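Journal club prep — side note

Before the paper discussion, L.F. wants everyone to see what a predicted structure for a comparable chain looks like in token form. Sequence:
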Amino acid sequence: MPDKKTEETTGKEKADSPLANRFRGFLPVVVDVECGGFNNQTDAILEIAAVTVGMDENGLLRPEDTWFFRVQPFPGANLEESALKFTGIDPHHPLRIAHEEPEVFRELFKNIRKKMKAENCTRAILVGHNAHFDHGFVNAAAERNSMKRNPFHPFSSLDTASMSALAFGQTVLSRACEAAGIDFSNEEAHSARYDAEKTAELFCYIINRWQALGGWPLDAAPAHEK
């Protein structure tokens, strides 16, 4: 059991981490999955990307590292033809370099835990556009592969579709990005890497804009009151 001095040092380190402070000890990780259907229990994950965010000296968020994996369908996984047409992914293409699902999630979770430690965060929180969808597939994969150290909060997430509805009156990713002045290519969309990186840009923009309007830190007065 750690002594009092160790506990006080750990607490100070966490308090000194601006990113951990901003999100109550959570590390925001933007995730996008491309799948063979909508059922996270039966349908294959074909691609997954995760983007971490960092905070600069002014308290502004910015996207940092991206991890991207092509995933082999797990044994017995369902593949809906309509989903494959929508994403344009051919899971059986001979030149597609994909890895088995357990390997992908072990590597992804390891990288996220490393970033959590660096930022003195106690847990990761999944950020996604319609986050419930991505979160469900991540949790299903972790359970399917008996992974005990899933770094993500089991049910809480941050949804940029809801945030965009508030900020812009938009819920579609491409339209929300357009409203935020973020370039978006419909030709590149539906790649896990592209969608995750654009979602990360959108998330950072909205959080930073909220700060500029006086919404963070909590003790700061809005600009019009100064």
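L.F.'s comment for the group: The chain has a mean pLDDT of 91. Keep this in mind when we get to the figures.
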